[in-house]
Write a structure and sequence with these properties.
mainly alpha
Length: 376
Amino acid sequence: MAEESESGQEKTEDPTPKKLDDAKKKGQVPRSKDLNSMAIMVIGSASLLTLGSYMIGSISMMIEKGLRLSRTEIFDTKSLLSRMEVTVFDALIGISPFLFVMTVVALFTPMALGGWSFSADSMAFKASRVNPISGFKRMFGTKGLMELVKALLKLVCVSSIAVIFLWANKYEFLGLSALPLGAALHQGAWLIGMCFLVVSSSLILIVAIDVPFQLWDHSKNLKMTLQEVRDEMKDTEGKPEVKSKVRQMQQEMAQRRMMDAVPDADVIITNPTHYAIALKYHHESMTAPIVVAMGKDLIAFRIREIAQENEVEIFQAPPLARALYAQSELKKEIPGELFFAVAQVLAFVFQLRTARQQGLVMPKRPNSYMSPEEEV
């Protein structure tokens, strides 16, 4: 059943990106302790098996050097301190590869689930953390029940895998007594390391259950009511920078749609460089020519460029271009007082198109496009 907010509304909506971002800033990200433990144990045991020989060799040399002290060195305090420094340095060199691997695993494994997050809010004191009632709710809630199930599953899983491994390798363990001391120590260390690796690998099953649960629980805790989603949208859209971005996107979309209509235009009337107006006319479906694209400067240049790419006729008529730009509206018919001038241009364009298709004599360009009273 969906949870209810303080207002009584059910939290049925998935968290918005803003809600998730705010939660991350507060340190509320999905985390799995079992994922961290599994990675450290599995990679740690694998590293011990891989680097064990090197580490044991380094530590053996360190012990051997430390025990080789002359009588003079034993009674020389400065010499003993110097030898101690060398011994500690050798020890660090011997275990440094293992320490490096463990440090990388401990730092980067949590980032695999929820990413990197640091928040002072999550470290601040909260009374609910020491409140007994809240503690009981956590113990007997869904998360507490899940933790109990995981603990029991860990016990059963780890114990079963350990028993199976020991039983399968019982003869190897019993045979250690028949080996020389050095070989027995080496073989025993290898068996213990393999046992640790196999037992640690059993935690993968726990992680496969815990990680999806943590993601589901995190999303459930951040669920929102429908009213909260609406309020957030109002707050977000009310910001000046958001409104400006929305207007910019709308203008870009409108401009792209306008440019898509240029190839279908019948003629582009230009200033010739400052203005460009694309007109389309079909005598059967239109009562008057329609402006499908218009603009000045850079937009006009782009309109002419697209027209040239699509072989749309470009007609230079500065007075008419200025008048159309000043008096016309996009996607609407041209003003009535410009019908005569535009009709002359369209008649010439249609005659020109027919002449080219049929190989006829090219028509003569009209000398006048606007009467003096039509000019603006």
